[in-house]
Write a structure and sequence with these properties.
alpha/beta, Rossmann fold, 7-stranded parallel beta sheet, two-stranded parallel sheet, 9 strands, about 50% helix, about 15% strand
C-alpha cells in the first residue's frame, strides 16, 4: 500500500484528492493547521501542519515516519489567496502570500526529499494554477507565487530525475471550491481602482461558482500516481490550454482577452 501525504486536505481540492486516493487503496494522511476534533469527519488520518512553520513541518514529517516507513507521494495542495491590486496590498500580505503558496510547498518538498532519495523513488505533485501561466488581474501576488512554483519544480524535476523521484505540477483553471470565500482582501482601498477591481473580482467569483467540481482534478492526480512516466505539466479546465498558447504566441492578444473577460 502506497503512502500519500496531502497538505490542506480537509476541504476543496485537497479533500477530493484524499477521498479518491483512499477509495483506490492508498494510505492517505492529510494535514490541517487545526485538526481539532474533526478527525471523525474523514476517512483518513489528519496530521497537524502549518506549512509556514519550519518546526511544524519537521514535526509533521517525524510523526508521519512513526506511522509508515515510506513516503511514496507528497501532494502540495495547501495555499491561500489575497485579492486586491498590487498597490493596495500591503507588503506584509504580499510576503504572507508567497511564504504560504511558494515557500510552503518548497519546504515540504525539501522535507520529504531525503526520505524519497533513501527509498529510491516517489512522486511529488504540486497543485499550481492557470494563474501560474498567465496574469490574473487583482491577484498579482497570488499569480507571482504560482509562477514561482512553475520555475522551481521545472528545475527540480531535472535535478532529481536520476533518483526515480517524479515531479509533476497540476494547473487547474476555475473549479467550484470555497476558494473565493476564503480569500483575504487587500489591507487598503484606493478609489481609483474601485470599478475595475469590483468588475474583476465579480467575474472571478462567478467563474468559480460556475466551474467544474474538483473531482476531475482528483482523477488527474490518481492518473499521475499510476503512471510510470508522468508528464511535468497537467492543465485542467476551461481556457487552460488556449490561454498559455496565446501567452507564448501573442501577449497583446492574451492581454486583450483577459481584459475583456474581467471587464477591464
Amino acid at each position: 500500500m502506497r503512502t500519500v501525504l496531502i497538505t490542506g486536505a480537509t476541504s476543496g481540492i485537497g479533500l477530493s484528492i484524499a477521498n479518491l486516493l483512499h477509495d483506490n487503496g492508498f494510505k492517505v494522511y492529510g494535514t490541517s493547521r487545526t485538526p481539532g476534533n474533526n478527525q471523525k469527519n474523514f476517512q483518513f488520518e489528519i496530521l497537524e501542519l502549518d506549512i509556514t512553520s519550519d518546526g511544524s513541518i519537521q514535526k509533521c514529517i517525524d510523526t508521519l515516519l512513526t506511522k509508515t516507513k515510506t513516503i511514496d507521494a507528497l501532494i502540495n495542495n495547501a495555499g491561500i489567496g489575497i485579492c486586491g491590486s498590487a498597490e493596495e496590498t500591503s507588503m506584509e500580505q504580499a510576503y504572507k502570500q508567497v511564504e504560504t503558496n511558494f515557500w510552503g510547498a518548497v519546504k515540504m518538498t525539501r522535507a520529504v526529499l531525503p526520505v524519497m532519495r533513501g527509498q529510491k523513488g516517489g512522486n511529488i505533485i504540486t497543485i499550481g494554477s492557470l494563474a501560474g501561466l498567465i496574469p490574473v488581474p487583482f491577484q498579482s501576488y497570488y499569480a507571482a507565487s504560482k509562477h514561482a512554483l512553475e520555475g522551481f519544480f521545472k528545475t527540480l524535476r531535472i535535478e532529481i530525475k536520476s533518483f526515480n523521484i517524479k515531479i509533476s505540477i497540476v494547473e487547474p483553471g476555475f473549479f467550484k471550491t470555497n476558494l473565493h470565500n476564503t480569500f483575504e482582501y487587500a489591507s487598503s482601498s484606493i478609489a481609483d481602482y474601485d470599478k475595475i477591481r469590483d468588475n474583476a473580482l465579480r467575474v472571478f467569483t462567478m467563474s468559480i461558482e460556475h466551474g467544474e467540481t474538483p473531482e476531475r482534478i482528483a482523477g488527474v492526480i490518481l492518473k499521475i500516481l499510476n503512471s510510470k512516466n508522468p508528464r511535468f505539466r497537467y492543465k485542467i479546465g476551461e481556457n487552460t490550454k488556449l490561454a498559455p498558447i496565446l501567452n507564448f504566441l501573442s501577449y497583446r492578444l492574451l492581454e486583450y482577452g483577459i481584459r475583456k473577460k474581467f471587464s477591464l
